[in-house]
Amino acid sequence: MSVAPVSLRLRLYQILFDQNTRSGRRIEALCGFFALFSVVIIFIESGVDSHYHLSFDQWHTFIYLELLITLVFTVEYVLRVLCWPQPAKYVFSFWGIIDLVTVLPLYVLWLWPEIGVNYVFAWRALRTIRVLRVLKLLRYMSSLRIFWLAIVSARHQLMVFYFLIAIVMVVFGALMYGIEGPENGFVTLGASVYWAVVTATTVGYGDITPHTPVGRMMASMLILIGYSVIAIPTGLITTHMSNEYQTRRNARICPNCRHTGHDKGARFCNACGTELQSVEAR
User: Where are its TM segments located (predicted)?
Assistant: First the structure.
């Protein structure tokens, strides 16, 4: 392989994947803007179509905009696949799948035109998934990165918590199914567990309600349980976020006196005044 294609491929890789370069961040921001622009167009299209019957020319305006957005995302996706060292690994990665989803809607319409006629709502929903592309921009926010690390760190406690909550929901759903029965709306175990989840989260849609005194007592107990445990996930995540913040502060060590505990934006050591290494440089 000649030097020119290799250098071009490396340059494309830096532009499309290197988050530490200005060009890489600009390309990611531009793609995020197109994703948001596409979602806004979908909302406008669905809103206008629900109040006014769009003419053939008006529909073509939205189709042309969709064609432009799809063209941009298609070129970007193809370039990403070509410049990645292992294309198959990128295609089946999490971000690769999100990039592919942003490209697919118009091609799906071309392959199955009846979707645009009989299932236009489904096609709009598929296009709206492009909003996931904005998640890529969130990688540049350090606070969100800490939040994500806190969730990963607390994943085992959260899994145990939700597993126990699921058991409680099944138990209460089964009890209400036996107490109230189908004549009061608890027609199946699934519907009863659904009622338990809605009640424990204090949403209370009101589509299923207990009518017997014992059933109302059970509902009251479940509401109190919901209020008692709803703060547990928040407390777990907050604790791990605090630990992550403290770990990052301790990681900024003064090269002169080895003092730790500096704030994120600190430029000089608060003990000896020596200039600190920036977070980006680390």
Answer: 29-47, 59-79, 91-112, 159-179, 185-205, 217-237
